[in-house]
Amino acid sequence: MSVPVHIESLSKSFGKVHALENISLDIQKGELFGFIGPDGAGKTTLFRILCSLMLADQGEVTINHIDVVKGYKKIRQIIGYMPGRFSLYMDLSVEENLAFYARIFHTSIEENYDIIRDIYEQIAPFKKRRAGDLSGGMKQKLALSCALIHNPALLILDEPTTGVDAVSRKEFWDMLKKMQQTGITILVSTPYMDEAALCDRVALMQSGKLLSMDTPTQIVNDFPGNLLSIKAKGMYPLLHDLDGFEGANSVYRFGETIHLATKMNTNLMEQKLFPFLEGKGYQEIEIIEKQANIEDCFLALMEGKTGS
């Protein structure tokens, strides 16, 4: 079973801080939908409203056409929620935590074991170990098992891969893809831009606002113009020197390089950049044309340059 999610004109403030501003979107049955954005983007607030743990200031949310406020008891029976912070009982063992969550939903580990088998078998050798003594990756798998033990139609995961190693991140996304094949609708939030490509569709969020929503491929295809990666000896002042350069749509740090987005022909831009940078005293200049990725698109959207 899978369910659709409808969010319309959703807003939430905490004093003067606007956590969510007029968010509207629809999530289809069986989708793996990602909410991508840094800390403070509003992802956790949105998920808490979806789970009926928090009331919105305005707007509405329905899950499987059930209002999350009026029908909160029904909603809580059909969703599985894994919060960003590990929230299981540290003093209980792996097995005891899972049994406890199963009993809350009037089921048992045995009844729904097939649902969690692939995940739980990875932590079964440690089933007598206290949850507080597990590694980050093992805690992640236990929390996911507890969120799935009642066979939910909608799985909501708030930054599930934050703080775990790269191998555990990959394993976790492999598990999500496999779970999606059972038909469950999955919502996942993450600050990692590279995880956006693993979703069917994504919503890019910043400061409570929805910047863009589409498939990862389409968001990249909509990148405004061309992209150059620039590197030189003495990088520290490079960003400042390139800011406002004629023809530059946006300029920002990207790892060990500077990315410059432009609507100009890249060869023409390179011809202008080399003498400019040499005139500034830079040496060992490297300028390479790059294919934009989700992070480039996100940064361009943040600067409001997509329409210019």
Structural summary, described in words:
This protein has 308 residues and is of the alpha/beta class. The protein is built from ten helices and 14 strands. The strands form three sheets. It has a six-stranded mixed β-sheet, sandwiched between helices. It is elongated. It starts with a strand and ends in a 6-residue tail after the last helix. 37% of the residues are buried. The mean pLDDT is 91.
Short description:
The chain has 308 residues and is α/β, with parallel strands linked by helices. Helices cover 31% and strands 29% of the residues. The strands form 3 sheets. The chain has a 6-stranded mixed β-sheet, with helices on both faces. Strands 2-1-4-5 form a 4-stranded antiparallel β-sheet, covered by helices on one side. It has a 4-stranded antiparallel β-sheet with strand order 12-13-11-14, with helices on both faces.
Radius of gyration, in angstroms, nearest whole number: 23 Å
Tally of contiguous helical segments: 10
Q: What oligomeric state best describes the polypeptide chains here?
A: single chain
Largest pleated sheet: 6 strands, mixed
Which stretches of 5+ consecutive residues score pLDDT under 50?
A: none
Counted beta strands: 14
CATH topology of the largest domain: Rossmann fold
The domain tally reads 2
Mean pLDDT: 91
As a percent range, the share of helical residues equals 25-40%
Tell me what portion of residues adopts beta-strand conformation. Answer: 25-35%
Biggest sheet strand line-up: 6-7-8-3-9-10
Report the structural category: alpha/beta
